[in-house]
């Protein structure tokens, strides 16, 4: 069972990241009940996609990541589409982490230094650039501790916050913001890159992959629901884009400090994990020097940040919808092809009705088109 626990934690740790801090904000905008339906609906869709991807991984003898599977089952166009999605998604996530890291540092150190959140974001960028350049790998050693700390923090917030929930904050509905939660929740639920790693962790117990995917997907979903219930229930529609700081201000300085510390470590580990992976792509796959690879990884999001693109919700919404939607469509297409021309017998197999698969493709396609149209109108 140890390998099952580790595999499940890998998916939970990959899924839960900076997106959790923005979910209460978008749910407060649309209303708690429609937001809850959004979370459950997209959660079930992501669970379906994760199970499909798990079957793809099991049906393929060699180990790959999403780009490799896309090349095998969809050809060159699938590989290129996936490379675009991965790179765009990486940079979107790095920019989001850069923005919110400054908020957390300001919350932690604001009483000691008269610097703005913008200044702290610049300091964070310098700090992470140095670590990525030297390739310091400390993330795997502390990821499980981050997950345990997360569960403790969420439990404390829930215990102290539940009695303060105001029912009237959960009642209002505003469908003008109907599409707002889509990309943010997709971003927060994204953890598909963990599934090939889960297969490796399970080794001879690959028959447990299906159960690990189910637990690893549903546990973050439940945490998001509880966190949103507390955030919206206590603060209501005035909650900001960084719910953990608002909740800390409402529940006490101790909660604010613990929440900010947790948020900063979560953002830092996620930034470094993605930054180091992207650096390896440039350094190993494209034979660029360590310096050039580090510059490409760290300076592109920094330049975009300096040009004023600092809206956290907008960034994760765009990234989640465009990239999460594209990944979802590609996984469905790969799943169909893997059923036809796999080279290995999977430990589990699911049968997704064609109408459901087409519905998922249609939902994601409409979401992507809506996001592109919104960007054009701006």
> Rg to the nearest angstrom?
20 Å
Strand portion: under 5%
- Structural class, please? mainly alpha
| Secondary structure: number of strands | 0
Question: What is the molecular shape?
Answer: globular
Number of helices: 15
| Low-confidence runs | none
Describe this entry's structure for a reader.
Helix content is 77%, strand content 0%. Helix 6 (117-134) runs antiparallel to helix 13. It has a single domain (2-377), classed as Amino acid/polyamine transporter I (Up-down Bundle). The chain is an all-alpha fold. The model has no long low-confidence stretch (mean pLDDT 88). It is globular and about 60 Å long. The protein has helices at 2-15, 23-30, 32-58, 66-74, 76-109, 117-134, 139-161, 180-189, 195-202, 209-235, 243-251, 253-285, 290-306, 312-341, 354-377. 48% of the residues are buried. The chain is built from 15 helices and no strands.
């Amino acid at each position: 069972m140890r390998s099952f626990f580790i595999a499940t934690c890998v998916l939970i740790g990959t899924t839960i990241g900076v997106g959790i801090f923005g979910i209460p904000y978008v749910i407060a905008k649309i209303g708690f009940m429609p937001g809850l339906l959004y979370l459950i609906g997209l959660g079930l869709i992501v669970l379906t996609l994760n199970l499909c991807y798990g079957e793809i991984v099991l049906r393929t003898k060699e180990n790959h990541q999403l780009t490799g599977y896309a090349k095998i089952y969809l050809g060159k166009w699938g590989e290129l589409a996936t490379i675009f999605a991965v790179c765009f998604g990486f940079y979107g996530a790095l920019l989001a982490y850069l923005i919110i890291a400054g908020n957390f540092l300001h919350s932690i150190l604001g009483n000691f230094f008269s610097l703005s959140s913008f200044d702290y974001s610049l300091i964070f960028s310098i700090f992470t650039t140095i670590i990525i350049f030297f390739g310091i790998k400390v993330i795997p050693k502390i990821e499980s501790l981050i997950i345990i700390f997360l569960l403790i923090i969420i439990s404390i917030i829930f215990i102290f916050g539940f009695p303060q929930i105001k029912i009237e904050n959960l009642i209002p509905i505003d469908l003008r913001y109907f599409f707002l939660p889509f990309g943010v929740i997709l971003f927060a639920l994204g953890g598909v890159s963990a599934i090939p790693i889960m297969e490796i962790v399970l080794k001879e117990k690959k028959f447990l992959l299906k159960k690990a995917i189910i637990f690893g997907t549903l546990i973050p979903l439940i945490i998001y629901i509880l966190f949103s219930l507390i955030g919206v229930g206590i603060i209501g529609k005035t909650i900001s884009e960084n719910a953990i700081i608002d909740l800390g201000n409402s529940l006490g300085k101790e909660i604010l400090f613990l929440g900010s510390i947790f948020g900063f470590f979560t953002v830092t580990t996620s930034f470094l994990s993605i930054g180091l992976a992207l650096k390896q792509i440039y350094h190993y796959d494209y034979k660029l020097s360590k310096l050039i690879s580090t510059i490409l990884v760290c300076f592109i999001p920094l330049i975009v940040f300096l040009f004023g693109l600092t809206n956290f919700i907008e960034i994760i919404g765009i990234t989640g919808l465009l990239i999460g939607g594209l990944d979802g469509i590609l996984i469905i297409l790969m799943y169909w092809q893997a059923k036809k021309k796999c080279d290995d017998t999977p430990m589990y197999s699911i049968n997704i009705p064609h109408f459901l698969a087409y519905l998922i493709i249609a939902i994601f396609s409409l979401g992507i088109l809506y996001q592109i149209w919104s960007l054009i109108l701006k």
